[in-house]
Amino acid sequence: MTDLTELGVKAIRDGVAAGDFSAREVAEAFNANVEAAQQALNAFIVATPEKAIEAASAVDAARAKGEALGKMAGVPIGMKDLFATKGVQTTAASHILEGFVPEYESTVSANLWKAGAGMLGKLNLDQFAMGSSNETSYFGNVISPWRKAGSNAALAPGGSSGGSSAAIAARLCPAATGTDTGGSIRQPAAFVGISGIKPTYGRCSRWGVVAFASSLDQAGPMARDVTDCAIMLEAMAGFDPKDSTSLNLPVPQWEAGLNADLRGKKVGIPREYRMDGTDPEILASWDRGIEWLKDAGAEIVDVSLPHTKYALPAYYIVAPAEASSNLARYDGVRYGLRDLPEGAGLQDMYAATRAAGFGDEVKRRIMIGTYVLSAGFYDAYYNQAQRVRTLIANDFKAAFELCDVILAPTTPTASFPLGDKVDDPLAMYLNDVFAVPASLAGLPAMSVPWGLNSDGLPLGLQIIGRAFDEQGVLNAGLAIESRAMFNAKPEKWW
Amino acid sequence: MVTSYRIQGATGEWEVVIGLEVHAQVTSNAKLFSGAATAFGAEPNSQVSLVDAAMPGMLPVPNRECIRQAVRTGMAIEAQINAWSRFDRKNYFYADLPQGYQISQLYHPLVGEGSLTIEADEKAGIPEDKVIGIERIHVEQDAGKLMHDQHPSMSYVDLNRSGVALMEIVSKPDMRSPAEAGAYMRKLRAILRYVGSCDGNMEEGSMRADVNVSVRRVGDEFGTRTETKNVNSVRFVMQTIEHEARRQVDLIEDGGTVVQETRLFDPGTGTTRSMRSKEDAHDYRYFPDPDLLPLELDEAFLDECRASLPELPDAKRRRYVEGLCLSDYNARELTAEVETFARFEQLLAETATKLEKSETEVATQVANWSLSVAPGVMNALGNEANPAHATASAQAAILGMQAAGDISGGQAKEIFEIVLKTGRDPQEIAETEGLKQQSDTGAIEAVIDDVLAANADKVAEYRGGKDKLFGFFVGQTMKAMQGKGNPAVVNQLLKAKLDG
Amino acid sequence: MSVTHETVAKIANLARIRMDDAEIAKLVPEFNNILAWVEQLGEVDTSGVEPMTAVIENHLRLRDDVIDADPLTGGGVRDAVLANAPAAEHGFFGVPKVIE
After folding, report:
1. Does B215 reside within a domain?
2. Taking a C-beta distance cutoff of 8 angstroms, is the pair A357, A337 a contact?
3. Residue B79: predicted pLDDT
4. Do C100 and B288 touch (CB under 8 A)?
5. Which of the four CATH numbers 1.10.357, 1.10.20, 1.10.238, 3.20.20 does domain C5-43 have?
């Protein structure tokens, strides 16, 4: 019999529908993998095998009764622990939310359950989604299932959706939710050889997702291939009147619209992304990607995104500023940790609680954000950053006059050993240099696997599309996928 | 704009400069950014949504009615309405502020500059009408409530108010005396209540003022101001100003300086004191709320707001004087409160219809009834009166009978008294209780004939030129009729008989 | 612009994060590195450029004034609101006594 955990979303959904296997068998197989890998990979903060079984049983029962099945029927998934799940601890990987059990379900997770998906557990992440290596979680580092050829050193699964990426690569789940504020879906996807798409800002509701930076946060699917991403994004997306920034648009049928034929399409190659110091293997992978898209029928055009250089610094003003305010609610009054030193007053309680509850990176960003918003600095920092953001969005608008999608590397390097950059925040931030511009402009962007580098580690390619054109992004991704023929998986050591 | 209010200091006269920031609760069913109810007096935390409690991942969605009411209020003070505005976050930590920020509007408020006029009031030292500038109106969330007395070492937090919509109405520093500030508060309250955007209920906290006070030598630059928070009655606002002005003058004259600070009013002592808990909260790090897009209002929305505005206090008062020919005093009294003019206008309409006369013709009678006669009867009865019986139709019936000459003014009061106690029909009361006056000329003539016959000597005197005796004959006739004769008819017939 | 120990201490207080001197001392150079890096934004000529207000063209919707229209954003859910509170008593949240 096939190993069910080798199957992706589409194969599981179709197999369950066809009766090749039951949803329950699928859930059990993944539950077993989750449990077996927990010690070594630490991908989950909480496993919920009973939830997976419960959802699977419901799908099996519905199928037995001949009822129509949902888009994700029978597919067990991992849920990034940034999504509030009713009755299941939700922590954002922070001590300050340890033990917090929401009385509500996020819109995105509710949509997935409605589509027939089940929950294997809550996935580890960088604390409050702040990080690029999954080393800021209060619940320990996530270890990538990948290792450099000839080395046992623990590698970063990327971040902040590092639990999601590791779990999918290690076959602990066929797909998982991610959130992307400045690359948190695409960078980890690239690091572990999977696909992931951040849709247009506003496609997926932010209601019930622990906020990091409201104007940037966007949920999206992570899965083994482009088709699975299309299926899962359809299930996650949709207008939500509870989110003022939600897009009031029908959800396109992305799966049905998949088409790898790029004849008549123009692919832009942004010259500013060819940065000094970029790993030559990354540049080579990009050139190869260009060839593949040509092969798919696309015309390649040179485009310019002149303010690319300023995207990362603008991001590191806007995101921390919003975060400093979004995270003010963690004060020990209504939920989560309370640290009340003997004789402390209210304000002392706040300071003690937040000191004990937040990790170093979270504190660093809250501090930066507080500083750039403080009296006298608001205009020079925050407003200037938001003006630069306008220029970056305008750059993309101009480029999309000349092309339909943009091809770029996802990351400047392959995965790196844990501990390599923890003492150098700036070096860590630079990981997202290629991912952040699309976030600042709210554009759909995805990473698809390219292949392995000379160390035997996966690299990804990034496709950025026009606002609302997830289909164009997915199609270009499919064109790459069908030429890259990526089928490498980490050798099991856990 | 000469206001004589001065504080006498040891070193001379001082002028007080006052600006008011009034927080008015917007009348709405649900909160500004959540669907929880706004009703006053509910069980603690029973009107709190997950949004109001700032649970992780919760997001604000604005309530159209709150925006509409703020726009209508802006139109009522003839202010500039900003079709493009934004919500900003005001960041500070306090137990009554679950998000750690208040959603407010700093950079782009919904309503820009406007003004209102306070009326001249000689007795209060306001010699002439005065226009008070209004800087802006913005919409923001209210905070929750802390209770300090329930537990020895804890304060309790009730978030029912958290997220209720407020309008912050910021005046310019245009007021120069406690009386002006009091008049401003009353006028603003009247406008809000006319518009229906705030119930103006100060006891329930629907209207509170932050009182900014500074003092200066007449003609000098503005002095340093203090801000006394959350003062919740007109009287307390005036007391705050009196106390603050005195305190600041004494402080300066003793060689001290006024510190810009937040203060608290103590209604028990009528004094203010420095508020320790807000001391370091001055860097609010305002920035546009990234959970909300800019608020853009289209023409249709603004048109509806404008079209739904009622007649406002100044216009109504003018119409009462110029259109209904009421006295200045009556017009002012009748337009002061929404309930008063509403009752008056209903009664006026019914009475005019009943008598088939124009409203102007009956307005003075109805005004006098509404302002003095009816309240007099009601007050005299005290608890015996059931105000629910004081319907417009009952009162119109009484006024109709009086105007037709069927009852006298005294009988009108007696009938109204019975109506208030029992709710019986005025017409029926007049019949069964004998509370009608005699207007039948035949009957009255018969009585007059008797009176004249019985007082032939006086008749001769009268006819001989002693005009003053006319009053005697009226008195005798009325006496004979047990006071029920219609005085006008009695007068007319007597005159005819005596002179004829 | 470079920040001092005192500035970082002030910011920590504003952000309500208790920090001892050693933590502040460690943060000062990190802060300065990050600020020096983000200050390259000053090079960009943004005259006449509006700060971004909405990343994707969209309009703010206003909801109807209806109580508890959606149970997820309505009131009357006191138990849910208090369920995770570190100190809830008599239907209130409890905090250390505040002196106003």
Report:
1. yes
2. yes
3. 98
4. no
5. 1.10.20
Q: Do C97 and B28 touch (CB under 8 A)?
A: no
Parent domain of A159: 1-494
Cβ <8 Å between B44 and C74:
no
**Sequence-distant (≥ 6) Cβ neighbours of residue A115 within 8 angstroms:** A70, A71, A72, A73, A235
In chain C, residues 61-80 whose CB comes closer than 8 Å to chain A: 61, 63, 70, 72-73, 77, 80
What is the nearest CA distance from B45 to chain C, expressed in angstroms?
A: 6
- Residues C8-65 pLDDT 10s: 999 999 999 999 999 999 999 999 999 999 999 999 999 999 999 999 989 999 999 9
Q: B285: distance to nearest CA of chain A, Å?
A: 5
Same domain, B395 and B456: no
Question: B216 - beta bridge partners?
Answer: B15
Cβ atoms of residues B51 and B98 within 8 Å: no
Catalytic residues of A: 80, 160, 184
In a domain, B435, yes or no: no
B238 and B378 co-located in one domain: no
User: Helix H segments across A170-310?
Assistant: 186-192, 226-236, 280-295
| A244 chain-B contacts, CB cut-off 8 A | 59-62, 291-293
Whether chain C has a CB inside 8 Å of the CB on A363: the answer is yes
Collect all residues with Cβ–Cβ distance below 8 Å to C31 and sequence separation of at least 6: A367, A368, A371, C3, C8
At B336-374, the pLDDT tens digits run: 999 999 999 999 999 999 999 999 999 999 999 999 999
pLDDT given for residue A213 in this prediction: 98
Question: In terms of domains, do B452 and B398 share one?
Answer: no
- Chains with ≥3 Cβ pairs under 8 A against B? A, C
What percent of chain A shows pLDDT beyond 70? 100
Q: Yes or no: say if A64 and A189 are a contact pair by the CB < 8 Å rule.
A: no
What token pair was written down for B362?
């009956």
> Chain A interface, mutation test: which of C38, C39, C62, C77, most A Cβ atoms within 10 Å?
C38
Helices A226-236 & A107-114, crossing angle to 10 degrees?
A: 110
